[in-house]
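User: I need a structural model of SWIM-type domain-containing protein from Nonomuraea dietziae for a docking pre-check later this week. Nothing fancy, just the predicted structure tokens so I can convert them on my end. Input:
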Amino acid sequence: MTNAVQAYSYAGPSTLDGSRLDLSTSGGRALSGPQAHPRFFSGLITEAAPAAAGLLALADVAMTRYHQPRPGWTRDPVVTCDGQRLRLESFSACGGVYARLDLDALDGEVLDRGTTNVDVNGPLREALVRVGGKDPLHLGVGPDELTVTTLEGAVVEKKVPLPTRWLRGFAEVQVIAAGFDLRAELRGPQAVRFLRGLPRASKTTVWVAPAGRDLRMVSGPTSGAVCLSGAGRITTLMPLLRFAKALRVYGPAAGSEFEASAWELELPGMRYTLAISPQPWRGFSGEGAVLDDLSTDEAAGDADVIGMLLNFEPSVEIGLLADRSGLSPSRVRAALTQLGTAGRVGYDLHEASHFHRELPYDRDQVAELNPRLTAARALVDSGGVRLDGSTAEVTTPGGVRRVSLAEGSCTCEWWFDHRGSRGPCKHVLAARIAARVAVEAEVTA
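Assistant: Understood. Predicted structure tokens for SWIM-type domain-containing protein:
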């Protein structure tokens, strides 16, 4: 698998000598700017047991391939310090499950704000398993390592690159989640009973709908219902149920046979969220939800403006960014999507707002990560699009495709197979780009 990451070189290995821990770093991205050896946080997690369980659950997602399970590489969680909390994010190896632990139960010193990815492997997992309810848990986070110290000693983990699929998944999840609404909220006992009653088969699809203070399974996509495709993919929640204070379920307006959903457990001093792709075999990286926003001509320039206004705030307010930048809210949203393709923003369902992060990816790689958009622009540049009112003909080496601009439909095989459920095809994108160019030409004429 191709990795779209920067190269990291270490001056030497990390060492632990008695009570002295020397962490070897290779720089990072922080509010204070690039530094050779930055650190973000050092202090105590005040709710040790649920935090340790949450970190283990996050690591379980990172090392699991839910679709066609087989041994593979362990992916690395991402951690962002925003001055109030630590956000730890992870994707499954198959790219169809996104997990995030929002950790507020902290008592220590914020040394800087920024983002890094961290390795959580065997020795660290063994240390976390031994953390009990009253055990102290000291956490030190820098841009290249995550260090967890218990009474029995310290374990140091080094940073390794993230695969390209993660970057695309981060971008798609924040766009998809922004369209979700809260569909149900269950208190602790009801949440535990409901989750334990779900089928465990990884390929089973169920629909659930609110029923008073509970949730019940229904026959299909009805009003207010939420799809859980591949019910076994939320098993990572089970070890956390002993700490659960509430369960919140998010989803789009029902209407399709398969939909993505999000499941949020409220724990003492933290929240653990899972986003589940529409089907077990579909990774978030291929959903295409970002393509319409990326196809606008002004998105890249707007992203430069909005990007300069981001300062690792706990919450990104679109209205405030619109006021500061002079852009419309719709253009701010499109700019945030563009920034998302570079791993620079995520979306918090509980707070219904974006948040700032910085992943070590280059914006120049966006085109490579979105081949449909690249192909659409090539069709426009080659003169392959002919507009005719609300329709268009797109000429390709494989023949002429007819596009309805109003419906966003096409006569190509991609549209026939997916009918818009995985974003627009390259022909629809090309027609929309050409239509915008034509409108702009009329305005300036």
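Before docking, keep this in mind: Residues 31 and 113 are 5 Å apart (CA to CA).
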